[in-house]
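Weekly modeling sync, notes
Attendees: S.R. (lead), two postdocs, one rotation student

Agenda item 3: backlog of single-chain predictions. S.R. asked that every request posted to the team notebook include the full sequence so nobody has to chase files. The rotation student volunteered to paste the first one in as an example of the format we agreed on. Action items at the bottom.

Example entry:
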Amino acid sequence: MSARVAIVVGAGGELGRATVQKLATAGFTVVGVDRNEEGLKELPDGIGYEVGDATDPAVARSVVEQIAARVGPPEVLVNTIGTYPWVSARPGVAPARDPGERRRTASARHGQDPAVPACRPAGARGLTQGGR
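Predicted structure, as returned to the notebook:
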């Protein structure tokens, strides 16, 4: 187990599993988080996971605290859930507006914000709350 810990939120999905694999290959101790336990069971051997809905701030905080207590404070948090506003790459095409966009973006923040105080300081590369 490496002293460098990474948490991947949304690890039960394809993007999350691919991210987990990359970080593990880079030498991190990786813990996946997802509300989909079946998806988490597809993670490679040796990868820890926690089942939880990271869109719930109380659950996200609890899961991060459990992971930090078990394997150490995270140095990296990767969030593969949520969305960002879609913008068309084609001139003159109006971007699609999804009514759930604001809710999903806020939900993604709920998964990230509790992790920030638990993260190990990483100098200039450290996480900042709220994307600032």
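Discussion: group reviewed the output briefly. The beta strands are 5-9, 29-34, 48-51, 76-79.
Action items: rotation student to repeat for the remaining queue; S.R. to check formatting next week.
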